[in-house]
Design goal:
The complex is a heterodimer of chains A (about 200) and B (about 375). Chain A has 13 helices and no strands. Chain A has about 200 residues and is an all-alpha fold. Chain A starts with a helix and ends with a helix. Classes of the chains: A mainly alpha (about 200), B alpha+beta (about 375).
Chain lengths: ~200, ~375
Amino acid sequence: MSHDEKLLISRSKAGDIEAFEELIEAYQKKIFNFAYRIIGNYDDAADLAQEALIRIFKSIGGFKEQSSFSTWIYRITTNVCLDEIRRRKNKKEHSLDEEVQVDDGQLKRQIMSEDPGPDEVYEREELRGIVKEAIDKLPEEQRIVITLRDIQGLSYDEIAEVLDCPGGTVKSRISRARQALKKVLSSKLELLNEDYVN
Amino acid sequence: MASCYDIRENICAYIDDELDSDEKRLFEEHIRDCNDCRRELEEMKRITRLCNELPQLELPPGFKAELHERLLEVQGSQDKIVKPGRRNKILFWSGTFASIAAGILLIFLTGGITRFGLRSSKMTAESGGQSTNMVMAAPTQRAMPAAGAEERQYEVQEDSKAYSSKSVASYESNAGLAVNQETDRSATVSDMKAAQSMVAGKVVEEETAVNRISTITILVEDPQATVEIVRTLAFENSGEEAAADDETVGTMKIGFSDPTAALKSMETEVDVNDAAAGQMKFIFPSMNYDAFVEAVSELFGEANVRISALVTEDMTDTLNELIAESARIDNRIRELQKGNNTGSSEIDELEKEKENVDGQIERIRLGSDLVTVTVNINKK
């Protein structure tokens, strides 16, 4: 942690909004992208990123400076996203039978069609769309490790710190996640021209 | 030579450069000689590259401005939150003011004294130490279950003309009444006795006290990370955190079945560290308790949340006894003072005892409007 960051953290702890905004300047895009990969929807990701940043601000007083600030904020963001996923699952469990029976894909399409955000613009490319869809279909624990590793570039140790789990768990989750992605993607990718992939 | 199975397990770690040098050497040796594993490695590299190449999106327009607005809101609401320990003290003092005022007013009402001077001007309450000439006119008013401490008000009349100009309240410590009467002491002691017993009788008649405690147990994958979430939820519902071992709140012994027994029965595995790290205590205004419970259930899912029944015990009798006890101690002190035993160690001891009793009275009164919630966060 740099000296500047330490200073900004201590000012943020005192409730200084400007210091906090400076502190998170480098992180908010990452937080937003992380939320986007986990929740799969542009507008929801914006809301969740806001929520995560507010929660970070509220709880920064409890941040222990011997741990890394970036893993700490990823931890909070992960929890905000998981809360949302649980909330949705909960809602789904409590809703009517016929709605519960809707398969994931159909449900997703409904959500997407209700809410056609600019994400479509970004995901227009077919290949990227396929990869995104494959990631969306992973169980959330795998989606989280893949996002932290491949999109955010965290090391296994850092991921273990974020998720508060052993390094071995991270290693095996990443392995399972990529295996699952391979399974989904390889059949679809065969249909695409290899040149297009490269 | 390593088995293909071992190698496949390590493919991702190899791609991510997370193998140590020995593992890496073994891996590369195997890959050189094994076509299947080499093909698998290439495919995995490709999958990884596809993930790596997903574009980073720019922040949505207006994101920072919206965040700024919300931060200002949070800052505004946090300014209003009085720190838990401090609030308890303020409440304590407010309560003390109220009960002292009750005594003063009832003394007026009994008609024995029309002017009752309380001398000394020091106010050491943390809540302020503002000026001295204060008369409280809130005889039986107790802490209202308002959402925020700042909204709790007692009718404080500063420089009140309604009462004697000599009426100066003295709050030297939380020992309660520190009375130096200007009038003839012997004449007032009996009135004082009458007033005190009146206080006991009167207050108990009007005041019912209950103590409410609840325990919520949440099962999650990551207890440590959940702490912040629960804290946020509690704050959002006007809860204030007390130290888990804070003895000023919710420590009264009441008929509460052993919460740990219920807890153990629902857990397959009790991690002592997690249990210790994941216990928090919050105090909620009664009216906000339900909202908090609802928020917790909604967030973590009802299946993962166990909520004990809100245990309520009627504390009226206890309160009654304590108030009477306080009055008894007070009278004894006065008798001793009358006998010119000022400064004797017995008086000191009695004063300490009274302080303790008055503290208990306050806690019971506070408990009537507040719910103390112990939140246990345990690993699934």
